[in-house]
Amino acid sequence: MKKHLFAALFLTALHFHTANAACTITPEGIGGVKLGQTLAQVKRAFPHMKVPSEPDEEGEEIWPLPVAPNAVVYAHLEEGRRGRIDSLETFSAACQTQDGVRPAMRLTQVAQKWGRLRNITMSEIEMHQFAQFAKQPAHIGLRVEGGDFGTQEADVELPLNTSKASPGAKVLSIQIAR
Question: What is the pTM assigned to this prediction?
Fold first, then answer.
């Protein structure tokens, strides 16, 4: 009886570990998809993955790559479908860095892992916000919502910068790029 209970617990723990390991974010890749790969290489690594093409906000093409049942990674290729992956992004909370930073995490929780918030920049492109922390790993970017930019005039010039976040500020996505 104890053997069966131990085996069941072991298999459950192994499944949990494997599911979390399936979408680890490093400066080199997300969920097993690596910067510099081609779509053909990704398809060989994930033979059952369907790789459709859809335009992103700027009219370029990105490829949604379902790396796990609850995790999608978006790949941008430098020269269209035959080029190499030059950036990856995920909005999936199932994906996390080795120290536990993940999409949907509050910025106050990120600060506990990566040190104080240095700044949040609101970009010119669709007013996206990007955060920078004191101990943030190189080549890992955080797209966030909730930067406190105060009251701005209607004709304000972007980019804007602040070192403040609203109480509910959180990570929208994690990006890596070459």
Answer: 0.81
